[in-house]
Design brief:
Growth Hormone, Chain: A; about 425 residues; mainly alpha; single chain; 19 helices
């Protein structure tokens, strides 16, 4: 992500990870202050729009799949496995897209995602969901690695976490608007008809179109993102696929994060919907609460990463991940499950630590392809884990996918303890 670490590295504060980033040139090199500010505004607007797109569609998917399509939890696990195939293949998609430069690649990603979201609207069967699932997945998985790369390209040394945290907060502001619109619509339907059953079909389908339109609007914003001559040269000459032993800890963390998240995404919402009969109104309300919390805390968590280092922040985050998984497995109280659901979604803020860790150890030209490699590695188990989880759910009960997930949490905690040592080894090698 940046130039190799030099021998001028600042002295480490006792008890704090070495600040290897202090010797890495600013990612904003080549852009003046006005361009950096303009770039951040465009990226913020795009993040806001894409957040609306993703949340307005994902909030309604569990109930759309169950109530309109007629799917069960196991079928949802299979659809999740299909959805994650493009994520696994992202290194090859990125190898093509990055030839366009990061801004244009991001614009194309959002355009593809928007088309995919809109295509959910006319679906009437499980088979009809497969094509829009694959198309939208290609788009937003590509955006997942390009958005932090663009953010870090604007970040000053020592403020990487804060920059990504600000973008995260802006994204959750969009989430609040998206979820608020969904909730207001569902409450209106329930108030008008006395029930959601039989009356929410058209509304849910319309939200997929709205989500698609929001993503396409974001594509127009990010197309105008400023890129320096150096950035354009990197886009032209940088490696399309990157695999370096120096980044192996980041790769391992990405792999474990992805394996754990597949469990959550595939089964946590469906536990509430299928096992505890939670309706779309309640589920959307929970997500709004999460959005408000994360909107207020995004910058705070990013600042913690800059101040205390990735190792400490990620250790806290992974410990709480374990609490949520055990909570979903062991609790029979729906109100406690609401709390675990909110907590887990809050913990996504902590993932900024993994990204800033990569920023501090890798070369600038490796940034985008390394993030793409991380996304792909996070999907290595994307097909297997949901299928295994679905089998465990069907044979043993919904609790067992979450017990299975605690294995990945434990391995993440172990790996995190090596972050500071990894930084020190790279700094020593550079000197």
């Amino acid at each position: 992500m940046a130039a190799p670490i030099s021998s001028t590295s600042a002295a480490a504060v006792p008890g704090q990870a070495p600040d290897t980033s202090a010797t890495i040139p600013s990612e904003s090199d080549g852009l003046n202050d006005a361009q950096v500010q303009h770039g951040f505004l465009l990226l913020a607007a795009t993040t806001f729009a894409m957040s609306i797109a993703m949340n307005v569609t994902q909030a309604i998917q569990p109930n759309f799949f169950r109530d309109v399509i007629g799917m069960d939890g196991a079928q949802n696990g299979y659809l999740i496995a299909i959805r994650e195939v493009p994520g696994f293949l992202l290194i090859f998609v990125a190898a093509f897209m990055l030839r366009l430069g990061m801004a244009r690649a991001a614009s194309l990603s959002l355009l593809i995602a928007g088309i995919g979201f809109a295509l959910f609207s006319p679906a009437n069967s499980f088979l009809a969901l497969i094509l829009p699932t694959l198309i939208s997945s290609i788009g937003y998985h590509s955006w997942m690695q390009l958005q932090p790369a663009l953010g870090l390209s604007l970040a000053k040394r020592g403020s990487e976490g804060l920059t990504l945290g600000r973008l995260s907060s802006i994204g959750f502001a969009g989430t609040m608007i998206a979820l608020g619109a969904v909730l207001a619509t569902l409450l209106w339907i329930e108030h008008t008809h006395g029930t959601l059953t039989g009356y929410q079909d058209n509304a849910l389908r319309a939200f997929f179109v709205i989500g698609g339109a929001a993503a396409i609007v974001g594509a127009f914003f990010i197309f105008r993102f400023p890129e320096s001559k150096r950035d354009k040269e990197i886009a032209r000459t940088a490696p399309r696929i990157t695999w370096r032993k120096e980044y192996r800890l980041y790769y391992w963390l990405a792999f474990l994060d992805g394996s754990r998240m597949q469990i959550y995404f595939a089964f946590a919402p469906f536990v509430l919907v299928e096992e505890f009969n939670v309706n779309a109104t309640v589920l959307t309300t929970l997500l709004i609460i999460v959005a408000v919390i994360n909107w207020r805390c995004g910058r705070l968590i990013g600042g913690f990463v800059d101040r205390f280092g990735e190792q400490k922040v990620l250790t806290v985050g992974y410990t709480l991940h374990g609490v949520t998984f055990l909570g979903f497995a062991l609790s029979q109280n729906v109100w406690m499950l609401y709390g675990f659901y909110i907590l887990y979604n809050f913990l996504f803020l902590f993932s900024v630590g993994t990204t800033t860790y990569l920023r501090k150890i890798c070369k600038r030209e490796d940034l985008a392809p390394s993030l793409a490699m991380g996304v792909s590695l996070s999907h290595v188990t994307a097909i297997i884990v949901p299928i295994v989880g679905a089998a465990l759910w069907k044979q043993l009960g919904y609790q067992f996918p979450f017990l299975f997930g605690t294995v990945f949490v434990a391995l993440s905690l172990i790996a995190t303890q090596k972050i500071n040592k990894s930084k020190e080894e790279l700094a020593h090698h550079a000197t």
